[in-house]
Amino acid sequence: MNGLLPSLGAVALFLAAGLGLAELVPSIRRLPWLCRLGWAYLLGLAGLAGTLYALSHVCGVPLRRPAILATTAALIALGLFARWWHGRRPAVPRRPLSGWIEIGGTALLAFIGLGLFADAVTDPVTGWDARMTWGVQALWVQDAGTVDAPVLQRRNLYVNHPRYPLLLPVAQVAVLEAFDVPPDLHAWRTLYTTCFAAFLAILWEAGRRWAGRRPALCAALAAAGVPALTFFEDSGAASGYS
User: Fold this and answer.
1) Strand, coil or helix: what is 13?
2) Distance in angstroms (rounded) separating the CA atoms of residues 42 and 201
3) Do the beta carbons of residue 92 and residue 32 sit within 8 Å?
4) How deeply is 34 buried, as exposed, middle or buried, from its count of CB atoms within 10 A (0-12, 13-18, 19+)?
5) Per the confidence metrics, is the pTM higher than 0.90?
6) How many CB atoms are closer than 10 A to CB 134?
7) Residue 185: exposure state from Cβ atoms within 10 A (0-12, 13-18, ≥19)
8) Where are the alpha helices (DSSP H) in 87-234?
9) The dihedral of CA 228, 232, 233, 239: what is its sign?
C-alpha cells in the first residue's frame, strides 16, 4: 500500500493550486466543470512544480514543507482574488448523459480510471524509467532540498538524462515533503493516473465540440483502451515519467 490519504492528498494539492490558476484563464473558466477540472489539474501540476523549481533554482528556496504549502496557498489566493475581481462566473449549460450508450460508456471510463487509481494506491511503481531515473532523481532532490542537487552536477557521476528538466520529479518531492511520506511509499503515483483522467476529460469536451457527444465518447473509450496510455509500465498512466 502506498497510503490512501497521501495518495488522495497528492491529487488534491495540485488540483487546488490548479483551480486557482484556472481562474486566471477566461477560456477555462467558461468550460463545463469536468473539463475545467481536467485543465485545472494539469495547470496545477505544471504551475506548482514549475514555481517550486524556479524558487529553488533562482532564489535558493529549500524544497521543504513550508515552501511547498506556502506556494500552494499563494496560487489558491491568486485564484480567489481573480474570481473576486472578475465577478460571478457565467453560467455553463449542463449536458446530462442521455441513453444507455452514453451512460454505459461513461461507466466504463470510470471503471478504467478507478482501476488505475487502485493500482497506484496499492502497488509500487515497476517501470524502469520510474524506478531507475525519475524516481531516483526525485530522491536526490529531496535529500538535497534543492533542484540543483550536487549529484546532478558532478561530472564524475553517471546520471540518466542529466540535462532533462525536472518537473514531475519536483512534483514527487512536493508530495513526499508535504505529507511526510517515506521514500519507499510511492504515494505520488496518483499524480500520473490523474493526468490520464484529465486527458480523457479534455478529449471528451474537445471531441464534443467538434464532432458531437457520441464520437467524443468513442474517442475517449478508444484512448482508454490503448495499453501504452494506461497500464503500460514504461509510458502509461501506471508509470512514472518526467
Assistant:
1) helix
2) 11
3) yes
4) middle
5) yes
6) 24
7) middle
8) 99-122, 128-129, 135-144, 150-153, 168-178, 189-211, 213-224
9) positive
Report d(CA 240, CA 125) in Å as an integer. Answer: 7
Q: Identify the burial level of 25 via C-beta atoms within 10 angstroms of its C-beta, where 0-12 means exposed, 13-18 middle and 19 or more buried.
A: middle
Instruction: Give φ, ψ of 160 to 5 degrees.
Output: -65, 130
Joined grid coordinates for residue 185: 511509499
| Residue carrying C-alpha cell 494506461 | 230
Mean of the pLDDT values across residues 184-209? 93
Q: Residue 188 and residue 175: Cα distance in Å, rounded? A: 6
Task: Give the CA distances from residue 59 to residues 41, 50, 51, in Å, rounded to whole numbers and listed in that order.
Answer: 26, 13, 11
3-class SS letters over 19-49: HHHHCCCHHHHCCCHHHHHHHHHHHHHHHHH
Distance CA 110, CA 24 (A): 29
Tell me if 176 sits within 8 A of 63, measured CB to CB: no
Does 3 have pLDDT greater than 90? no
All three cell numbers of 84: 473576486
Angle value at C-alpha 225, between 113 and 1, nearest 5 degrees:
35
Cβ atoms of 65 and 177 closer than 8 Å: yes
Q: Are 188 and 200 contacting, i.e. CB atoms less than 8 angstroms apart?
A: no
pLDDT digits over 80-95, tens only?
999 888 877 666 666 6
What is the tens place of the pLDDT at every residue in 134-165?
899 999 999 999 999 999 888 888 888 777 77
- Dihedral sign, CA of 200, 201, 203, 208? positive
Of residues 138, 110, 113, 112, the one with CA closest to residue 125: 138
